[in-house]
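[stage:ingest] chain + small molecule (NAP)
[stage:ingest] validated
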Amino acid sequence: MIPRASSWRSIVSKARRTPPAAPIDAGGPPPEDRGAFVRREASLIDLKTKRVLVTGGAGFVGSAVVERLRGRGCPAESIAVPRRSDFDLVHEADVRRMYERHRPHVVIHLAALVGGIAANRARPGSFFYENMMMGAMLMEYARQAGVEKFVAIGTICAYPKFTPVPFREEDLWSGYPEETNAPYGLAKKMLLVQSQAYRAQYGFNAIYLLPVNLYGPRDSFDPQSSHVIPALIRKFLEAVERGDPAVEVWGTGRATREFLYVDDAAEGIVSAAERYDGVEPVNLGAGFEISIKDLAELIARLTGFTGRLTWNASQPDGQPRRCLDTSRAAALFGFKATTPFEEGLRRTIEWYRSARLRATPT
Ligand SMILES: NC(=O)c1ccc[n+]([C@@H]2O[C@H](COP(=O)([O-])OP(=O)(O)OC[C@H]3O[C@@H](n4cnc5c(N)ncnc54)[C@H](OP(=O)(O)O)[C@@H]3O)[C@@H](O)[C@H]2O)c1
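[stage:predict] done
[stage:export] tokens:
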């Protein structure tokens, strides 16, 4: 476990007595001025009174965000969830048509081509092109349509490969991302540049959030595209069913990761939509770090797998370490993850077990 860099209370109190924020072309204030950004809590947007459009709103994260919006009292008819089958957001005409149809006040842009290491390695061109085009056009047409607030969702894959841990937003531009996910990470990072440029030139209210690796119910468990947690849950459950003596895991097990439960991420995104207006990118994380070896052993225990784990070191580890400094989100809009990791894993395993049962013909 990595200790917290500093308590958010000290950052808030420091922020209250400090001068204005850094210029917009940086990822925020330099490290020595950590906490020196102005606490820019927006006047609370009452989402209940707005038409909110959630691109990717039927996906893993999107469905959790839609649930949160409903929990905030947003009427179902005020939340638009455009599906790819109706609006392919890689195509300009569809983006334009979508804004004409839904006329949103607030946009939460979650639609993306998403996947784990295998999918990113197999299709780096698609990961770059689709995410880049969607982001650029979604924000441009939102601006033209007079959207009041645009929440752009980035990714931790935008961070340089060797970012000092815990990752601080100031370090976003200090190097090239880990190669296997660089096309995806950089395409999504352009949303940050676009938000800052549009705020400077047009006064457009766009914010940029960087969620860490997410997990939880409704995640993809497809072996072709899944991330590490669903991939391991599936492997171990299937091994238990077959009575396999061993399970192979990719990489050396030495890389570390941080994971945020999807409902916590959704709360962070909705809170930022309500309360944060600013140029600085903001991490959304849980603030802890676990090695893939420890993670695999934990999931083995929770799924009841008692066999051996073998490590396939010929497969890539991906980025060596990942753990976010989450103090900015706490200071700017009071976000703190609340779901204990083991509890989140149990709920995810339970959800997948039930989903498989539902999918099995009787
Ligand atoms: N999962 C993570 O660990 C994680 C971590 C950090 C950030 N994020 C970000 O969170 C967002 C959501 O990710 P997710 O994990 O929820 O992915 P997901 O379950 O695959 O959902 C992505 C959604 O995007 C929509 N979409 C994809 N291509 C589209 C297109 N060309 N036109 C219209 N819609 C399209 C899909 O809509 P349909 O359902 O209609 O096909 C899908 O529901 C992404 O921006 C991702 O970068 C995710």
